[in-house]
Each structure stands twice: as structure tokens, then as C-alpha cells.
Design brief:
- This protein is mainly α.
- The chain has two domains: about 60 residues; about 200 residues, Up-down Bundle (Growth Hormone, Chain: A).
- It is about 75% helix and about 0% strand.
Amino acid sequence: MFLVNVPVCIVVGTIVALYGRRSAGDPARTLDVVGQVAATAFFAFLIGALVLLRGVSKHGTLPAVGCLAGAIITLISFVVRQRHKPGLLDFSMFRQLNFIGVTLFPIFYSVSFWALLVILPQYYETSLRMPPSLAGLSMVPLTGGLTTVPLILGRAKARLDTRAVFVIGMLGILVGDVSLAFAVVHNNYAMLVPGLVLSGATSGLMNPEVARTAMRLVDSRRSGMASGLTSTMRQIGFGAGVASFGVLAGHGGDAGSFTSVSMQTILSVAAAMAAGGLAIAVLTPGLESSPR
């Protein structure tokens, strides 16, 4: 099923190459194919290392260590290229502490919330014995807030500064993850609903603000670069989170079985990442003064 993404990526990449407009303010920057390959290889090696950790008992540590080494090498290659040739990133953006905070924030956000969208249905099927269709529908309390809250609270949110939005969002996800960690012990879906609703609602309040904040913190010529960077960090957090949670599930019993014990561990890690995201939201300077 995932292979359907291959032709989609080819089509999108072709459209961008043929019709994407180059920034008038920075003609030196061109489509950086080598940089894109290095960044993609880093992500692939990183996820591969995490996935292979699950099979250490069968295949040993060499494959996982090899992938980790590949991730380190490709990351260094990407950074060196970007520093010596105009391409995907302008490292001058990282001279701002607030931009560094906003760039790291999506990783914590993705692991603590988005990765659970993949993991929770597996728990519903394996431990709560739900059929796949019902497991999907059971995610509505979590996903519903993503679409309804921005519509309902749009005007009220406009009165809050960026820091307040981030703090409320991550605090709600933190409390929601902790609530879920306690609830999974009972293997009762009804006890999960309050945590699902709270996490989904507060994420819906915060989600649109993440990319917009990064774009506001840089020069207008770098707004697309900032938005793309936050999206990339989201994907890194999401992929690494899902892979790591899969490893934890394998260690909780039979490989791939999302038991209540392994889910407690997973949700505890998610809550810890939410706490990290909350700390970034509180400590990053200048968020309350960025125009919204």
C-alpha cells in the first residue's frame, strides 16, 4: 500500500522542477538534488536503525549499528554540503534562539501526538480485540478535535500569543498522554476517551500555528524554507516515534503485540516528549512578541 506514494512523489517532484518559481531574492540557490538525496538517506538510515533494534536478538547488533553509522555519515555530508553550497538550508537562520526552538518543537510534538495515531489502532486490535474498521472509528475522539477546534475557537485563539498557544497545546497533550497511560491498564476503551478528546482538542488548537510561527521568525525570502524545515522535522519525529514505539511494543511481549504493559511504556515516553515540547514552549525566547 505504501508504494502508492512512489508515483505521487515522482509526479509532485516533476511539477516542482518544471513549474516551481525560483526566489527572485536569491538567484544563487538552485534545486539541490544531492542535498535532498543526503537528507532522505539520513532519514532512511535513522528509521532503519530503529526498526532493526527490534530484531537484535535474531540478527545481532551489526545491521542496526550499520544503519546508525549510515545516518551519521549522511547527516554530516548534508550539513557540510549546505554550509559550502547554497541549497536547501540557510544556516544563518539558526543564529536566532527562537528559530532553533521552533525548529525542534515539531519533533517533540510529533512523537507525543502524531505517532500515536498509528500506534493506538494497533492496541485496539491486539488488546481490545476490535475489528480494523471499529479500531479506525475509535480514533474519532482524538482526530475530531484537529478539525473542529480551529473552527470553533478561531476567534478566541487570535487573542492568544504564540507562546500561550504552544503551552496550552503541549500541556493538554501531556495530560492526555498521562491519562491514557493510566487508562490502558484496564483495557477499557471508555476510560481512554477523556484522554483522547483532550489531546485531540489541544492539538487542534496548536497545530496550524507551528509552521506559521517559523515563517514569521525569518526574512520573507526564507519563509518557504522555514515552512519546509518544520514539515521535515515533523516527519522525522513522526517516523522516529512510530519506529521507536514499535520497538517498545516488541519488547512488551510477542513481537508486534501492543499489550497494556507495552502501551504504558509507549505512552510514558510520549508523555515525556510532550513535557519536552512544553519546556521548549516555555523557555524559547521571543515567542510572545512574534506577531500573529
